[in-house]
Fold this sequence. Notes:
Blueprint: H1 3-25, H2 30-53, H3 60-82, H4 88-100, H5 117-138, H6 141-150, H7 153-177, H8 183-197, H9 203-216, H10 218-221, H11 224-247, E1 252-256, E2 265-266, E3 269-273, E4 276-280, H12 282-286, H13 289-292, E5 296-297, H14 308-319, E6 327-331, H15 337-350, H16 354-365
Antiparallel strand pairs: 1-6, 2-6, 3-4, 3-5
Amino acid sequence: MEPILLFLPMIVLFGIVTSYTDIKMGIIRNRHIILALVYIPIAYSVILLFNYFMGIPIRLSYLQDLGINMIISAMFAFAAWHFKIWSAADGKLFLAYSGLVPLTAYSNTYFSYFPSFVLLINTFFPVFIFFAGKSVLSSSRKEKLDFLRRLKRNDIIELVLSVFWITWVTRLLSFIVKFNIGLSANLLIVLLLVLILRKNLNWKLSLTISVLRIVFDFQYIFTLTFAWMFFVLTVVALSTFFILAFCSGLFIKNIKIKSLKPGMVLSDHIIHERGKYKKMDESEALGNNNILKGDLLKIGKDGGGLTEKEINKLNSLEKIGKLDFSDIRVLQTLPFSPFLFMGVILTILASGNFLILINLIYSMLG
């Protein structure tokens, strides 16, 4: 029995239901996640029984690979939640899809140990391209020029160096998993690691690691293959982070402290200085020594957003005059479930990376 035939109806039902609740109510219910996770072993049990009675050999290596994929997916989901890339609900949603999409669905792009990595590629790339195009086309020439003037040279140097040493990590990883990771996966790994480590990286540390790469990997980095890959990844990475920074204003709005609601995610940081609480945007906070000293008021910054208790604390601080601001910027979060569902469908249609599907369609039209 082809596994996709048993899993596709559940994928569609699960995707529609979770997308609806995420869009309408801003929540992904735990009971839907649990139902999907329970369905996975039941479905595979049916497949194993069918194969047994039909005399089809049972490949235990498939179940082993599936288990490893689920474990790595769970670890990735936890890390993404811990580093505030997505919410706990989004992480659990990704874990459920990692089990619902059979490994045979990745036949054209299979990453050893972690085939569900393709789901991330097919989810984030189309979304980024859409919003990048929208932000660039909808902004004025003056807004673009003002943004370019605000760019810091150190940030550019740090990002270029990060691409250099992170591609060393992916190169070593490709040797371990015995698989050519490829350009698109390399790019996604670079972007994810920079996002995760952005608050703990500086250009000096990146420079040190880069020097080590020159010493130990010099035979490869002085080849045309590396030069081309490094050029492409650097240009795309710089463009990606510049566009993300530029279009971030589309998803940020000012709101009065008294109008804050549970679940809202703060864009600004709140720090304690000289008896007062002040707000800072992301770029100011990263360069502020008080953040490193632990004077940051850590509320409203995790994936779950503000809690009722945190909102009451802010209201109390405002009443006693401890806040030097009356409004704060919050992120207008987007429902993640529909995008991940779209990524899953693209994966099944392309049997892997959706770029392969685009290339196939282009070849047919040509």
